[in-house]
Amino acid sequence: MNGVVIKTTGKRYIVKSNSGDILKCRLKGKFRIKGIKSTNPIVVGDKVEVEKESELWMIIKLFDRKNHILRKSVNLSKKTHIIAANIDQAILMITLDSPVTTTGFIDRFLVAANAYGVEVFLLFNKLDIYDDVLLKNQKTLTQVYQNIGYITTSLSVLHDDLSEVKEIMKDKLNIISGHSGVGKSTLINKLQPNLHIDTKEVSDTHKQGQHTTTFSELYDLDFGASIIDTPGIRGFGLVELDPSEIGNFFPEFFSLKQKCKYHNCIHKDEPDCAVKSALEQEKIALSRYKNYLTMLEEEQEHYRTNDY
Ligand SMILES: Nc1nc2c(ncn2[C@@H]2O[C@H](COP(=O)(O)OP(=O)(O)O)[C@@H](O)[C@H]2O)c(=O)[nH]1
Ligand SMILES: [Mg+2]
Ligand SMILES: [Zn+2]
Questions:
Q1: Which numbered atom of ligand 1 lies nearest the CA of 93?
Q2: pTM (2 decimals)?
Q3: How far is residue 252's CA from residue 148's CA, in Å, rounded to a whole number?
Q4: 295 C-alpha to ligand 3 centroid (Å)
Q5: Residue 72 pLDDT more than 70?
Q6: Residue-wise pLDDT tens digits, 14-31
Q7: Are 91 and 183 in contact (CB under 8 A)?
Q8: Residue 66 C-alpha to ligand 2 middle, in angstroms?
Q9: Which residue minimizes the CA distance to atom 3 of ligand 1?
Q10: Is residue 253 predicted with pLDDT exceeding 60?
Q11: How many CB atoms lie within 10 A of CB 193?
């Protein structure tokens, strides 16, 4: 019988079978995923085959993953912790006030999601508290991200109807991210009031260095979507990128790359760079280019310090 892992707690795995049964399972044998040194072999979102063996349900097979997302390495063993697998869409909730979400944060998130092969839905929240200036900034930002192909919605989760959001979430396995205080719990509670999921976050200082004992959980929502709740995780860690790769994860840069004079152009100091000309013609947003340069410099710095 096949199903999806909806919760993991240590050695226990809760699987929802394709016919809707909730099964407590254990792992049969060892599951090693090629190329990943991970602390956890099977995660929420994994598609598995289960079999009953003398009263106990066993996971006997892990099906190939469409993608998986990682948490930043939290210890020195270089092992990674996989948060979830088979994500269809990450919802990035953004507010321009209370709290402020910077374009630096947004663009970094988009690069990570792109590298993981996860689609992103940008949800701007708290429009009810924006003044004219913020509303104008919000419009500009929406335009920037729509122009490069992202789906965006802007609203007040507290006051507005959520049918558009539901439509975008429908038939997908979603994961929700964004700074603490942007309104993630408010959204989930309004989407499904009877869920009572624990959406509170651990404090910022604890979040960074420590290994939190919170576990992700997958919920099926009544309107036909699924959502993964990952307590304490507002973004996801990025596997190290080669500086020359970063531009590939900016879709509007990637589509111009062929026109750069050098095939390995990093769109910085090279002559005849199609990305820089597009920037001069205002076809590429300055904020995107600046955030790209920042990421590039950080990765280059990283490379240097790791160069023994
Ligand atoms: N003004 C306004 N406040 C909101 C809106 N959505 C959420 N909030 C408030 O923002 C605060 C943080 O929301 P919460 O859902 O806990 O954020 P989370 O940390 O992302 O889960 C709460 O006081 C919410 O009532 C909104 O659309 N407008
Ligand atoms: Mg919350
Ligand atoms: Zn270039």
A1: 20
A2: 0.89
A3: 6
A4: 16
A5: no
A6: 999 999 999 999 998 777
A7: no
A8: 27
A9: 126
A10: yes
A11: 8
3-state helix/strand/coil string of the chain: CEEEEEEEECCEEEEEECCCCEEEEEECCCCCCCCCCECCCCCCCCEEEEEEECCEEEEEEECCCCCEEEECCCCCCCCEEEEEECCCEEEEEECCCCCCCCHHHHHHHHHHHHHHCCEEEEEECCHHHCCHHHHHHHHHHHHHHHHCCCEEEECCCCCCCCHHHHHHHCCCEEEEECCCCCCHHHHHHHHCCCCCCCCCCCCHHHHHHCCCCCCCEEEEECCCEEEEECCCCCCCCCCCCCHHHHHHHCHHHHCCHHHCCCCCCCCCCCCCCHHHHHHHCCCCCHHHHHHHHHHHHHHHHHHHHCCC
Q: Residue 96: its pLDDT value, please?
A: 98
User: In the structure, what pLDDT confidence band is assigned to residue 232 with cuts at 50, 70 and 90?
Assistant: low
Q: If you average pLDDT over residues 271-292, what whole number do you get? A: 98
Q: How confident is the model at residue 65 (pLDDT cuts 50, 70, 90)?
A: very high
CA of 158 to the centre of ligand 1 (A): 7
